[in-house]
Amino acid sequence: MQFGAHESISGGVFNAITRGQTATCDTIQIFNKSNNQWRAKKLTQEEIDKYLARIEDTGVTVACSHSSYLINIGSPDDALGEKSRNSLQEEVERCNRLEIPNLVFHPGSHVGSGEEPGMDRVADRCNRVLADVKDNTVALCLETTAGQGSNLGYTFEQIAYMLDRIEDKDHVGVCLDTCHIFAAGYPIIDPKDYKKTMKTFNDVIGIDKLKIIHVNDSKTEFGSKKDRHEHIGEGHIGLDGFRNFVNDRRLKKVPFILETPKEDDLEEDVENLKKLRSLVNGK
């Protein structure tokens, strides 16, 4: 299994690889541009070459990029929706240049316009992005959400609805976030509950669509509908829930990525990854 964490690109995308190595990651997730600005700093060929060389030198791969938090391709506002679509396309293009196989994004919010119309807009804008990016090798991965506000994607059925309407089946997938599905009301702690939840996932979406797992404990209780990440084993999911995931043979090729709080020394990443690895084989 591959375990890793989201690492900062501060000072250049190549620095994320070094941070990943320091944090004992096998693989990492990055932002491929500033996550809180629309404008993206141009990627130079020199920076890309340095980034690819560092991957080769360290053996730390990049499993996925996470899109900007500003993007809302489910928005009923035409101007924001189009701005979001353009930004998502730019991020797909940057992932192609950086040879990152997956771009994780939140399906977005319908902002009171209704869930089905919102999901239709998500699928339509994804179709336009995938049609417009030539020679694309990147999979758009819809992330499961916690159910906060008018956010879309908090049930497996909603994720499946959007996937079904995206035409380029070879370049779409799913990112499952443990904190989010727990907060949304999917039980994962008891082994029997975990098996039932994952059977539902497989029946509704398909395990073959699962590209990335975000491994985050939850600060809030089961079914809270709140997205609050906690360190592994220190939240309401606890170690038992993560033991189920890391010992599921069907997931052995799916990268496990932490998105938990940390300081610049990355000691929290080291500790969380140590905990996850210690759970493998039912320890």
CATH H-level superfamily: Divalent-metal-dependent TIM barrel enzymes
Give the number of DSSP strands. 10
Text of the CATH class: Alpha Beta
By CATH, the architecture is named Alpha-Beta Barrel
CATH topology assignment:
TIM Barrel
Strands in their spatial order, largest beta sheet: 1-2-3-4-5-6-7-10
Strand portion: 5-15%
Task: Describe the main β-sheet briefly.
Answer: 8 strands, parallel, barrel
Cα shape: globular
Helix tally equals 9
Helix content: 40-55%
Quote the distance from N terminus to C terminus: 15 Å
Q: Regions with pLDDT < 50 over 5+ consecutive residues?
A: none
Written description of the protein model:
The chain is an alpha/beta fold and 283 residues long. It has one domain (3-282): TIM Barrel. It has helices at residues 13-22, 45-58, 78-98, 115-132, 156-165, 178-184, 191-204, 238-246, 267-278, and strands spanning 3-6, 27-30, 61-66, 102-105, 139-143, 172-177, 210-215, 217-218, 229-230, 256-258. It has an eight-stranded parallel beta barrel, surrounded by five helices. A two-stranded antiparallel ribbon has the order 8-9. α5 links the parallel β5 and β6. α4 (115-132) crosses α5.
What is the fold's blueprint, element by element?
Elements: E1 3-6, H1 13-22, E2 27-30, H2 45-58, E3 61-66, H3 78-98, E4 102-105, H4 115-132, E5 139-143, H5 156-165, E6 172-177, H6 178-184, H7 191-204, E7 210-215, E8 217-218, E9 229-230, H8 238-246, E10 256-258, H9 267-278
Parallel strand pairs: 1-2, 1-10, 2-3, 3-4, 4-5, 5-6, 6-7, 7-10
Antiparallel strand pairs: 8-9
